[in-house]
Amino acid sequence: MKKADGADLILGPPLDGRTCGGCTLCCFLPEINTPELQKPASQLCRNCTGGGCSIYDHRPEICRDWHCAWRRVAAMPEAARPDLIGVMFELAQPAAPRSILHKLYVRGIAVGSWKDFEHADAMRAIAHFRTLTLPLWLCFGDRMTLAHPAPEIAHCLLGPAPAPTEAIAQEVQRWRTIFEPL
Ligand code: SF4
Ligand code: SF4
Description:
About 25% of the residues lie in helices and about 15% in strands. The chain has one domain (about 5-150). With about 180 residues, the chain is an alpha+beta fold. The chain is built from 6 helices and 6 strands. It has a 4-stranded mixed β-sheet with strand order 3-4-5-6. It has a two-stranded antiparallel ribbon with strand order 1-2. Helix 5 crosses helix 6 (about 165-180). One iron/sulfur cluster (SF4) binds near residues 23, 67, 71 and 82.
């Protein structure tokens, strides 16, 4: 778990009235590597009781500031709380991105299997993120699949492939203009 710069600007600030309830997925799924707290990915934090945080009142800053996409994005279905659909969406901004499509992106992480992405509310969330000019990667275990932008645009962004049409060339240029400077 890393606090993505500008998450408030890109996904929006945490929504009033949308609370974690019984979800503790971000105490399990992401790697946390801060001076105050370290844990590997897919391992429950030692402070998680299973229904909450045993050090809630003095939990580390990263836990106070970080919110998954569902806590921020009103267009995601209310029923898409991560523990209920088995998928957590977050904004990711790696320190050492592997490509232009890894600089800043939405990452959906499935909890139990790849089929979690077929949950109706996960699919609605995916449909929403596909409307944005922001890469969407779907992850389970070591597998990471690009779900947005479309393959013909991604191929041009990731390699020297020429755009097959003028419309695609313009779309590729639009993505480059946004993501190359990051
Ligand atoms: S994954 Fe989202 S909803 Fe679940 S505990 Fe973390 S911030 Fe709350
Ligand atoms: S310190 Fe508390 S809020 Fe932070 S990851 Fe651990 S259990 Fe979750």
